[in-house]
Design brief:
It is a single chain. It is built from 16 helices and five strands. The chain has three domains: about 5-70, lambda repressor-like DNA-binding domains (434 Repressor (Amino-terminal Domain), Orthogonal Bundle); about 80-235, Rossmann fold, CATH 3.40.50.300; about 240-315. It has about 325 residues and is of the alpha/beta class. Helices cover about 60% and strands about 10% of the residues. The longest helix has 24 residues, at about 50-70. A five-stranded parallel β-sheet has the order 2-3-4-1-5, with helices on both faces.
Length: about 325
């Protein structure tokens, strides 16, 4: 084992090179922050050998992680695909018109990534992701209150606090995975749209649209359906989506391009394509190659999926 002085120098070099905080190193190494601080300063009065063992394991793990990370090619940053432009139109309309928009479609059509991108570009646009724990009216309102930093974050005055916080902001609330919300929760958000005068966009899977449309036939919830000002849907990525995304990944031969286009058209779409290519590039980089082969794509699929790539596609 290296001396403690050498080990401390190594840790500090890792910290500076990778922009790590002592808090992060503490979490990753399992060394309490106070102990780590004293150890790195050469002032720890406890069992230095025990701390050094943990620190050495962290250095070795961190070194391996970064070596692998360099070989793992990242998916392209956000790319404005044709489908993304479609989703952006919904967000822009809902925010400007202070109306309700609905986006539905299959997984892997860049709905969430577009929502995240929109929120980085526009003031007072907030993204909330629903799940089974946020399906009730009070639960989703409480999460929204935390996200927008409303003056009231719980209790009977929650709705009025949200209205006070949001009115006049010309804002947009984007609710991803909205299929998890109960009908009562959807109606509560419809009321928030009405009373706070802000835009709302619901993102979900395809059954969400049928569910909202069905509410138009129920007198008690007809307002939900009638308040939707724009609907957009897409069942799978378009050829234009695939063309744009593959251009960002770089040149591929025809056989590889044909295979990854097939993958992009399956369940999971663009998300599945990115994950498969990322794994394939990892294999190629590990072998010292600057391009991916059919075998890399097959491995990128077969290692990650419960069923192997169909033979008709491989051929």
């Amino acid at each position: 084992m290296t001396s403690h002085t050498d080990l401390i120098t190594t840790i500090k070099n890792h910290q500076e090179r990778h922009g790590l905080s002592q808090s992060q190193i503490s979490r990753e190494s399992g060394i309490p922050k106070g102990t780590l601080n004293q150890f790195l300063a050469g002032k720890y009065n406890g069992d230095n050998d025990k701390v050094a063992q943990k620190a050495q394991r962290w250095v070795e793990t961190n070194t391996t992680r970064h070596q692998l990370h360099q070989k793992l090619r990242q998916a392209p940053d956000f790319v404005m695909l044709p489908s993304c432009e479609r989703w952006m139109n919904v967000f822009e309309y809902a925010q400007i018109a202070q109306d309700i928009g609905v986006i539905t479609g299959a997984p892997g059509t860049s709905k969430t990534m577009t929502a995240e991108h929109y929120c980085t570009l526009h003031s007072n646009a907030w993204l909330i992701t629903a799940d089974s724990s946020l399906k009730t009216p009070h639960a989703i309102l409480r999460d929204i209150a935390e996200t927008v930093d409303a003056p009231v974050k719980n209790g009977s005055r929650l709705m009025s606090g949200l209205i006070k916080r949001l009115r006049g902001t010309q804002g947009l609330l984007i609710i991803d995975e909205a299929q998890h919300l109960t009908t009562a929760a959807l109606d509560q958000l419809r009321a928030l749209n009405d009373r706070a005068e802000i835009g709302i966009a619901w993102i979900g899977n395809e059954p969400l649209r049928g569910r909202i449309e069905g509410l138009g036939r129920e007198a008690s919830y007809a307002q939900i359906f009638s308040r939707v000002g724009m609907w957009k849907s897409r069942k799978k990525p378009t050829k234009g989506d695939l063309d744009h995304l593959l251009t960002q990944w770089g040149a591929m031969d025809n056989d590889v391009s044909k295979l990854v286009r097939w993958i992009g058209s399956q369940e999971g779409g663009l998300r599945e394509l990115n994950k498969t290519l990322r794994f394939a590039w990892f294999i190629a980089s590990h072998d010292g190659r600057d391009s991916v082969q059919i075998s890399d794509i097959e491995a990128g699929w077969n290692e990650r999926r419960p069923h192997p790539l169909p033979k008709r596609v491989e051929g």
